[in-house]
Design brief:
The complex is a heterotrimer of chains A (253), B (224) and C (41). Chain A has 253 residues and is mainly alpha-helical. Chain A has seven helices and no strands. The two termini of chain A are 19 Å apart. Chain C has 41 residues and is an all-alpha fold. Classes of the chains: A mainly alpha (253), B mainly alpha (224), C mainly alpha (41). At the A-B interface, helix 5 and helix 6 of A face helix 6, helix 7, helix 8 and helix 9 of B.
Chain lengths: 253, 224, 41
């Protein structure tokens, strides 16, 4: 168990494991998140017009679509950092991939819960085996499996290597899954520049588009904030672990 | 590289023929799945005929996962994995060899279990047997290719039996969708053959993409 | 309408749940640090 820790000990200073200072970046991300989130609520509830056929229920759209976007972004980030890790073998890339995958799973849960609620109200069924829904479900299972690979026992670089390989393969799987399922069955989601409120014939009112874009920005800030926070937390944990190891050694002697 | 792979495949198949442990288990398990299916879907009922094409794949997937698990875990358990890694060959030839051994084993299981299923459920094939064999071949190829890779990945874990299905099922979902659709069309409704061929092409594309990807990435998985 | 409220509450429940999880991890780590500090003296 201590093998991995020992390897890094050379470059490690005991003194700097003090609790992280709140950096400028954290402040900016936090501020940006709060401001855009408040703006998003203003735009969703007061600015955007109410959809004609579905009424207020359509406002689920402003949470559903940005969550899906953040989930895909997070998994893409995991994919990129997995490749980077395999090339450069730096621990920080692995940490980014891990934290991003975890946030992605959280947002996929949001997509998978708001989706059925919306579906129940507008299609009158909780679930439809429809391409985007099913792809999201499979994506969820894939990245839960990714997190399971991370829970394996063993030295960190083995785990990181295997997880990176799985992250790459899993993300490469997504487009194929999507095409396979789209071919299999396509009934619901009408196509409106890729994502859609169920308006036949497609299209989206400008005020809705503005609200959507603001919410997407807000959610992206939220993602960036969570990612930054998670990564700095993992780094801190690492330092504490190393320190623990050092202390144990000293006590033994 | 190919010769090294062939040697590994031969070694695996010989040791399997000696003990007949895995192959026997796989075939018995396939029989048990058929038994459970007969409880779940009444064989006397005519509507049951509609689920037979899917049942073929249920059998292959579940008995396949048993064999995949064994093929790399046994190396790990007997500590022969290091021997393989130290041997003067690339990681990709280990993968290729394991793949060939697993693939031939699943083919044997299919040869035994599928006619057995048709016999027990009294299923008359209305389509072309030749196309059916092609579908079985292409589908098992994709399933075993990615399955061998993920088994190598999961064998590093202590609980690889539990981990492997979790990794494998979502990953192979395109293969399973394509192959069940194609099987259904070919076994029951030959008029729609072009769409079955389209499905086959999709599965074949998946096979090629993932076979190449696994080939490139296996050296990271089998690193010491 | 109630569907919308349901969906919004679920969204924030999940997000705050995740933040709570992060907070919990933080506090357990902090406990660890305190303990180590004690031990170090």
């Amino acid at each position: 168990m201590s093998m991995n820790l020992e390897r890094e000990k050379a470059s490690f200073e005991v003194a700097d494991w003090a609790p992280i200072k709140i950096s400028l970046l954290t402040k900016i991300l936090y501020g940006g998140m709060v401001v855009t989130m408040l703006a998003a609520f203003y735009f969703i509830f007061l600015y955007a017009e109410i959809e004609k056929t579905m009424g207020a229920v359509q406002k689920i759209f402003y949470m559903h679509v940005p969550s899906a976007w953040v989930a895909f972004l997070a998994f893409f980030v995991t994919f990129v950092f997995s490749i980077l890790f395999l090339i450069k073998r730096k621990r920080i890339y692995d940490t980014y991939a891990y934290v991003s995958a975890e946030i992605g799973v959280v947002f996929t849960i949001i997509v998978l819960t708001t989706g059925p609620i919306w579906a129940k109200s507008s299609w009158n069924t909780w679930w439809a085996w429809e391409p985007r829904l099913t792809t999201t479900l499979i994506l969820f299972f894939l990245f839960v499996a990714y997190l399971m690979v991370r829970q394996m026992d063993g030295v960190w670089d083995k785990k990181a290597r295997l997880a990176a390989v799985f992250g790459i393969i899993g993300f490469a799987d997504v487009p194929i899954v999507f095409f396979a399922i789209r071919w299999w069955q396509s009934k619901f989601h009408p196509i409106v520049f890729g994502d859609g409120p169920s308006q036949q014939g497609g299209g989206i009112a400008p005020s809705m588009l503005v609200a959507l874009l603001v919410t997407i920005t807000a959610f992206t800030f939220l993602y960036a904030y969570l990612l930054h926070k998670g990564v700095s937390f993992e780094n801190m944990k690492l330092k504490v672990d190393q320190y623990k190891e050092k202390l144990r050694e000293r006590l033994e002697n | 590289m190919f010769r090294a792979a062939l040697t590994i495949a031969k070694k695996d198949i010989y040791s399997e023929l000696r003990t007949k442990q895995v192959l026997g288990t796989m075939i018995i398990f396939a029989g048990l799945v058929i038994l459970v299916l007969s409880f779940a879907f009444d064989p006397a009922n005519n509507t049951t005929k509609a689920v037979i094409p899917g049942a073929v794949w249920i059998i292959i997937v579940f008995s396949g996962i048993l064999g995949l698990n064994r093929s790399l875990v046994s190396e790990q358990r007997n500590d022969t994995m290091h021997g393989l890694l130290v041997a003067p060959m690339e990681a990709s030839s280990i993968y290729l060899g394991k793949f060939m051994a697993n693939f031939s084993m699943i083919l044997i299981v299919e040869i035994v279990a599928v006619p057995f299923l048709f016999l027990l459920f009294d299923f008359k094939v209305n389509g072309s047997i030749l196309y059916f064999i092609l579908v079985l071949f292409v589908g098992s190829f994709g399933f075993i290719a990615i399955g061998t890779f993920l088994a190598a990945l999961a064998s590093n874990s202590k609980s690889s039996e539990m981990l492997l299905p979790l990794l494998l099922f979502p990953m192979t979902s395109p293969v399973l969708i394509g192959v069940t659709q194609a099987t259904k069309i070919i076994l029951t409704n030959m008029e729609k053959l072009p769409s079955a061929i389209a499905w086959l092409q999709l599965v074949a594309a998946y096979d090629v993409i993932f076979f190449v990807l696994c080939f490139l990435l296996i050296e990271y998985v089998l690193e010491v | 309408m109630e569907f919308m409220y349901g969906a919004y509450s679920v969204v924030w429940l999940v997000i705050f749940g995740y933040m709570l999880l992060i907070g919990k991890r933080h506090s357990s780590l902090k406990k660890d640090i305190e303990f180590l500090k004690q031990l170090d003296k």
